[in-house]
């Protein structure tokens, strides 16, 4: 997993990163869900070999013309702003049905409305939230929730 500087910024490791590092190798497709600006794309970029930015005209045109093009991309494949090409959701579902091995796809985006898309066990949703005080370096936890859960 890559980390470090991208465009002059250093990636801030999130509490969620440990969970993703455990889940992604075992799940064929993960949807990073959350409000705009919480770091979904940056978090996914740390784990992907192929990036399809569907908010970029050229990437979107390629995937719109043939959504199955993602089948040949080296995994994990990031489908950033997946909702810009809604047909890609069903393509991922079909590809997962054909090959359910882990670590294949990470989808990110902030669709304007709650979607009625069903991954039906094929696409696991992981909710991202804004940086915690600890992640911002504002507070040091004296007791972590992880320790309490135990």
Automatic annotation (TrEMBL):
Query: Which Pfam family, any one of them, does this sequence belong to?
Result: AAA_14
Occurrences of domain AAA (ranges): 28-135
- From the record, what ranges are coiled-coil? none
Return the protein name: ATPase (AAA+ superfamily)
Task: Give the InterPro entries listed for this entry.
Answer: AAA_14 (IPR041682), P-loop_NTPase (IPR027417)
């Amino acid at each position: 997993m890559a980390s470090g500087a991208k465009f002059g910024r250093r990636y801030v490791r999130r509490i969620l990163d440990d969970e993703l590092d455990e889940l992604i190798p075992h799940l064929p497709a993960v949807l990073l869900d959350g409000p705009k600006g919480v770091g979904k794309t940056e978090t996914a970029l740390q784990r992907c070999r192929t990036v399809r930015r569907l908010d970029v005209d050229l990437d979107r045109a390629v995937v719109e013309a043939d959504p199955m093009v993602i089948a040949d991309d080296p995994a994990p494949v990031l489908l950033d702003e997946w909702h810009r090409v809604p047909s890609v959701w069903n393509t991922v579902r079909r590809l997962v049905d054909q090959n359910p091995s882990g670590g294949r796809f990470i989808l990110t985006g902030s669709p304007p409305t709650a979607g009625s898309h069903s991954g039906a066990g094929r696409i696991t949703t992981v909710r991202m939230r804004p940086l915690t005080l600890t992640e911002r370096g504002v507070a040091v936890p004296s007791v972590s929730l992880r320790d309490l859960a135990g």
